[in-house]
Amino acid sequence: MFKILAFALAVSLACCAQASRGEEMGDEGYADSDGVKIHYVTMGKGPLVVMIHGFPDFWYTWRAQMPELAKNFQVVAVDMRGYNKSDQPTGVENYATSKLVADIDAVVEHFKRDKAIIVGHDWGGIVAWTYAMTFPDKTDKLIILNLPHPKGLQRELANNPEQQKNSQYARNFQKPDAASKMQPAMLAFWVKDPEARKKYFEAFKRSSMEGMLNYYKANYPKEPYEYSEDMTYPKVKCPVLMFHGLKDTALLPGALNGTWNWIDNDLTLVTIPESGHFVQQDAADKVTRCMSAWLKLQMGITQLESAAKE
Question: Which end of the chain, N or C, is less packed with Cβ atoms under 10 Å?
């Protein structure tokens, strides 16, 4: 069912052993994913919300959303493998989507929860979509930011010349020597806030350039692009909220068409004309208010308040 909520009204409504206070926004710790340590920062109490960043990014991308969500949820923002304080295994095979999904499942298991709300942006969005398809019983709600459903993206890569042209960067990242041409300062160019940019620079210095690009080498479709309507993905069973900044030049909005055909539940789509790829920062206040309002409407304010007090 395709469903667009009246957000103008809705928005107006108003753990880990050895975890440390190492980050100013919450407690930090590590989950074990088959021997790979996945770093996270957590704050708040209540139903579990796992937030997954994309490229080039780290857990801090959610800094605007975390405090508001933490009023009703336990928010866990992860560093994906290869990034910042998480482990950085070598080898393209160690960045296959199946392993990235297993990392998120390890985080859910680490917090001893039966299910979680999964939030993902960019590569985190691919992981979030795949997690929901792989673990439907463990995915309570799904929130996706600037990452079309994989089938929509594959269709556009096969049929849309503009998307093919705008995906040249991904093909460049798949080249064997691509990591040697990347530097931490280059990757932080998009961060507008000067103080935040310093944090990004430090995080990228701790990260693996090769690991970051292995996401593209292991998972991004390669030429010649192929697509068929007969290509099947398991339908997403939970309610889905999608944000898409329409100024995103890497992932064009045409890939959003048909998303409702691949979801067996409510879909709420919020397009933001003035925002680019990093919509959670470009339109931070709007995204935070919409996200919080949608979750409250989906879960019920009374239920949330009871859970937060436990």
Answer: C
Rounded to the nearest 10 degrees, how much is the dihedral formed by the CA atoms of 14, 273, 295, 255?
170
Cis preceding linkage at 161, omega within 30: no
Distance from C-alpha of 266 to C-alpha of 201, rounded to nearest angstrom: 39
Distance CA 173, CA 220 (A): 10
Q: What is the pLDDT of residue 30?
A: 98
Alpha helices in the chain (DSSP H): 7-10, 66-69, 97-110, 123-134, 150-159, 161-166, 168-173, 184-187, 194-206, 209-219, 279-282, 284-299, 301-309
Provide the Cα torsion 98, 212, 80, 220; round to 10°: -40
Percent above pLDDT 90 for the chain: 87
Using pLDDT thresholds of 50, 70 and 90, give the confidence band for residue 25: confident
Report yes or no: 287 and 62 within 8 Å, Cβ to Cβ: no
d(CA 121, CA 275): 14
Question: Is residue 94 a contact partner of residue 214, using CB atoms and an 8 Å limit?
Answer: yes
In this structure, what token pair is assigned to residue 227?
């697509």
What pLDDT was estimated at residue 282? 97
What mean pLDDT do residues 250-260 have?
A: 98
Structure tokens at 178: 């691509």
| Class of residue 303 by CB neighbours under 10 A (exposed 0-12, middle 13-18, buried 19+) | middle
% pLDDT > 70, the chain: 89
No. of H helices and E strands in the chain? 13, 9
The larger pLDDT score, comparing residue 140 to residue 6, is at: 140
